[in-house]
Queue: 2 jobs
Job 1
Amino acid sequence: MVVPTASAQYRAVEDLTSITAPVGATLRYSFTALEHITGLSTVAALTLREFARPRPGRVLSVDTRPGQSARDVLRDGLPLSEEKAPRLPADVRQWMRLHRGLVAVAFDGGALADWNHTIAPVIRHFDIVGTDWGALPLPDATQAAMASDVTCITGSYERDSAESAIGFARALAEQSEECRPIVVLSDITASRSTWPRIIAPHLPFPVVSIPHDAALLAGRAPTATTLTRVRAVAATLRRAATERDVHS
C-alpha cells in the first residue's frame, strides 16, 4: 500500500475544505472542450458528484448531450419530490432526476440562448450548477465560458489537444478578468507524457492532470488516484470562483 506523503495529505485536506465551503450565491460552472475524446463528460460527472456529497440535492448537472455526463442520474434517478425541492414549481421538478445527492436535467437545446430561457430561471434554487456543453466550436465555447463564473476546459495529454485547451484558456483569461478558466488534461490514450506536468507551473491559470485510468475507461469504478485528481478539479473550480468574487 502506498502511504501518502505529508504534503499530499495536506493538499487533500485543503481540497476537501474548498469543496465543502459554503456557497453564498449560485455558482455556474461550464465544462467544455474544443475537440472530442478528451474525457470531458467523465470529468464533469465525477466533479459534480464531489460537489454534491456535502450538499445533496443542491447541485444541478445540466447535460446538453443526454446520456453523457448525467447518464447515471438520468437512468437511475427518481423525480424530485416536494420534500427534496419545495421551492421548485411542480412542472419543473417533474423533468429533473435525483440520484445519490446529485440533481440532473437533460437539456438538448445546445445554444446559450436556449439555456438562458430554460435553465437560468431555476438555477437560483441550487448552490452549484454545472453545464456539460460538450465539444464546441471556438465562438460557441467562448460564449458559454463568458456566461459562467468559471469554465473547465478539457484536453488530452496529446500535445495538440493540450495546446488547444491551454491556448483557449489563455485567450479567455486575457479577454476578461472576470472569466476564470481552468484546464484539465486527461491521459485518455495512455501516452504517459510528462509534458502537462512540466508546463503547468508556467501558466497563469490552474492546470490539473488526470493520469490514465484503464478501469474507468472499461466502465468500472475510478481508481483512488483518479478520485484524488477529480477532487483537485472540484477544489480548483471552487477556489477560482472565490478569487473571481474577490476581484469583481
Note: Residues 26-53+138-248 form a domain with the Rossmann fold fold (CATH 3.40.50.360).
Job 2
Amino acid sequence: MTKRPIYYDTETTGLKPATDRIIEIAAFDPEQDRSFCEFINPEMAIPQESTNIHGITDEMVKESGTFKEVGQAFADFCEGDIVLIAHNNDNFDKHFLAAEAKRAELDFPDWVMLDSLKWARKYRPDLPRHTLQFLREMYGIEANQAHRALDDVKVLHAVFSAMIDDLDIETVLNLLTAEGGAITKMPFGKHQGKPLNQVPKNYVSWLLDQGAFDKPENLDLKSAFEKAGVID
C-alpha cells in the first residue's frame, strides 16, 4: 500500500531546537482533504525578531495549549501509514519535533519523513534558489501569507505536486534514498571538500566552540562528524 502524504510546517521562537520552541504547527492531508493548525504556548517570550518574520505574538499564543497537548493532537491527525513532508525538514522541522516530543515526554511514531528542499536541490539544480516562496513563484502558484504554518503547508503541497509531476510518493522516497544523502565531505570552510575523517579535530572543535553546529542547517553535519569519530 502506498503511503499517504501529509504536508506539515512549524513556526518557532528561533532557530535552535535545544532552546527554542514551536509556537505553531500545521498539517494538510490532501487525500482526506483535512487540515490541522494550532498555536502552541511556548511558555517563554517570543523574540521580536521572530515575530517580525511570522507575525506571531505572545498575545496570540498565551491561551493556547502546550506542546504536550497540541503535539498529541498532531500525532492523532497523522495516524496511519503516512509520510510527513516539510520544506527543509531534515535541517529544521524534524529536529524541533523531536526536541519538543522529548521535553513533553510524548512517544511519537517513527514517522517516515521527506524533505522537499532536498528534492528541489537534486532535481532542479538549474534554479538559483530553492526557497518555498521562490519555487511558488517559479511554478506560478498563487501567493499566500508566507511564514504562517498552514499557508506554507498549502503552498508546499502545490509546489511539491508540481515538482514530482506524476511520480508516486514511494518512488520519490526511493529516489531520495538512492541519492545517498549522508554527508561524507566537508561542505564549507577552509577544509571544504575533504573527507570528514580527514578534517583536523582542532578545526571541528573550533566550529563547536563557535556554535556552528547549533545552526539547524548544520545538524546533519554534526551527526556525520560523530559517526566518523571526529566528535566524541
Note: The chain has a mean pLDDT of 90.
